[in-house]
Design the sequence.
């Protein structure tokens, strides 16, 4: 089976689920609204600029998971899906996934956003597997720390290589769809890189290298 690999945020959905989760926490009063929103916006700007320190960000973003029970977090996440994620769903992205399914491809989302936030989204999209940044757990609670290699920039390649060795899949005939220049390490590794509603830096690279550029927000 050929791999059809997809970034999630601003690729298969019209928005950033990580940032949206932070906004959801602010609106519900689960975190200090002013301070958390300022930090959340600051880290998003760093991500867009390519200057994000992923470990600094994860120390911030995973902390709220450690402060609440899994039952409470899951209840909030169900509300988050309805309130924030469903409006981000893109019909053209659904059609793209369906096209790859019809071709018999294996659908894999690979995202820097943590698994707690993204696993229900991946399930909603009906993909075969998800690689995401893993929040550390002890017993039945999150610790607020990251487990293993964050699934970000070159870390996506590290995590994918490990997954390939564990599953027996290969990158022969593989494609990867992404919006972000942060994903250039993986875009350069697959056979068929595709820029999806790309940021300016990725669009420039895609045009220079004659990679397809796709609009899923039409």
Sequence:
């Amino acid at each position: 089976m050929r791999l059809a690999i997809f970034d999630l945020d601003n690729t298969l959905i019209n928005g950033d689920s990580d940032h949206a989760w932070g906004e959801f926490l602010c609106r519900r009063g689960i975190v200090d609204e002013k301070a958390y929103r300022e930090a959340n916006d600051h880290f998003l700007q760093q991500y867009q600029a390519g200057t994000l320190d992923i470990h600094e960000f994860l120390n911030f973003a995973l902390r709220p998971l450690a402060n609440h029970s899994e039952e409470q977090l899951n209840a909030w996440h169900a509300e988050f899906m309805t309130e924030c994620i469903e409006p981000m769903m893109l019909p053209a992205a659904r059609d793209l996934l369906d096209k790859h399914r019809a071709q018999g491809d294996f659908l894999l989302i690979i995202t820097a956003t943590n698994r707690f936030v993204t696993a229900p989204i991946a399930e909603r999209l009906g993909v075969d597997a998800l690689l995401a940044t893993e929040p550390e757990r002890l017993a039945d609670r999150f610790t607020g720390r990251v487990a293993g290699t964050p699934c970000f920039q070159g870390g996506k390649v590290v995590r994918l290589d490990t997954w390939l060795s564990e599953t027996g899949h290969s990158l022969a005939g593989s494609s990867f769809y992404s919006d972000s220049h942060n994903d250039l390490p993986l875009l350069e590794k697959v056979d068929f890189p595709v820029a999806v509603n790309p940021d300016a830096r990725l669009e420039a690279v895609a045009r220079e290298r004659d990679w397809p550029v796709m609009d899923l927000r039409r």
In short: The mean pLDDT is 97. Residues 33-49 form the longest helix (17 residues). The chain is about 50% helix and 20% strand. The domain at 3-214 is CATH 3.40.50.1000 (Rossmann fold).
